Amino acid sequence: MTLNTKNLDRLCLGLVVIICVICSYWAVKQGYRQKRQIHEENNLISRKLQELDLAKIKSQGLSTKLDRVAEDLKSLNEKIPQMAEIGLFLKNVDDLMTSLNLVMINVQPFPAISEKLYTRIPIKLTFTGSFTDSYRLLWKLETMNRLLVMEKINISQSMVDKPCRVDLTANIFQRSEPVIRAARKEP
To answer: Across the chain, what does the average pLDDT equal?
Structure first.
């Protein structure tokens, strides 16, 4: 069979059409594949952004809780400090007594008593002044920022026109070990 130019032209034209159809099909298929891949990547990115937003919200919540715990711990450190700071406590008591016109007669600290989580330090205070000023001092001691437990309070007055004499034992506290370690169960 001999190919003439006309048949050869038809054959070449057919091959060109077939190649164009195959190339068009391949290009459309690649475009569809890329479009599907871009759509999947966009879905993945949107899910990751949603997860990131959720993580940010949770992080803010945890940060708020952490701030509250830090404030509570700071308050606890002020109420029951790591060190007794007896000098600062006695200075505060002296300032209170001076402002209330009370006269300190005696201050006598006793030996510290160790407990499981804290150490209790009893301090005997003896002072004189009017009953109302003495009562105000006791109230201010109870409501001060430092944890203080008063016991053995004796208020006496020898004569009606004389000032009251107050003998009391106040317990101040210091932590024996950090609260975090004490709260954990160690093996």
So the answer is: 85
Q: What is the residue range of 176's domain?
A: 86-181
Domain-terminating residue out of 51, 79, 107? 79
162 within a domain of the structure (yes/no)? yes
Length of the chain: 187
Sign of the C-alpha dihedral, residues 91, 137, 80, 124? Answer: positive
> 96 CB contacts (<8 Å, ≥6 apart)?
137, 140, 141
Measured CA to CA, the distance from residue 125 to residue 51 in angstroms comes to 61
Of the residues 48, 79, 110, which one is the last residue of a structural domain? Answer: 79
Place of tokens 């190649």: 19
Dist. CA 92–CA 50, nearest whole Å:
54
Domain identity same for 151 and 118? yes
In the 8-state DSSP scheme, what is residue 168?
E
Strand partners, 149: 171
Token look-up 């509250």 returns: 68
Q: What is the per-residue pLDDT across 86-142, written as a single tens digit (0 to 9) for each?
A: 888 888 888 988 999 899 998 888 888 888 878 888 999 999 998 889 889 989 988
Residue 163 lies inside a defined structural domain of this protein: yes
